[in-house]
Amino acid sequence: MKIYTPADLGKLPDLPTFTLGEKWMALGAADDGKANLMTASWGGFGTLWGRPVAFVFLRPERYTFGIVSKTEKITLSFFDEESREMLRTLGTLSGRNCDKCALAGAEITVDNGFVLPRAAKPVVFGHKLFETDLAAGRFIESEITEKWYRTGTPHTLFVYEVEKILSR
Ligand SMILES: Cc1cc2nc3c(=O)[nH]c(=O)nc-3n(C[C@H](O)[C@H](O)[C@H](O)COP(=O)(O)O)c2cc1C
To answer: In terms of residue numbers, what domain contains 37?
Structure first.
């Protein structure tokens, strides 16, 4: 396992950004003894305020939303193709009603508040810098609100500074 710090993020093997929609990742967060993983495919990685950042979009209805609202720490984990079913389960069941990680076969440990899935590579460690709701009146194309927000609450954008990345 290799640790990439902000000084050498440029040497990292590529993280999926434009392919995140097909690749998927697991967002891990823990608070108050509750640790959860949720599949996410909306978001990306880049530079903001002169820092390396990850950004994700969560609907307030998610159990994970309640956890990330209370903690500053998240992990974003990537997996080999054989973990696709695990990610499908993590993106279908809710940690609110069941031991989702166990049912999905995702072994996790929590280290200093960061949720670490055993099979992940790489794992991005982030701390929260910013969050904002996607205000309905800000959308330029009504097609987007009609397609995505006919029901449910619009997503909230969370921006995290990338602290380090663990890679094999
Ligand atoms: C492939 C895939 C990608 C997803 N991406 C997101 C996402 O980016 N943001 C989001 O809020 N929900 C996303 N979801 C839905 C959540 O993963 C799903 O509602 C999950 O059951 C929430 O779990 P929780 O209630 O334990 O937080 C995605 C689901 C799948 C299957």
So the answer is: 2-167
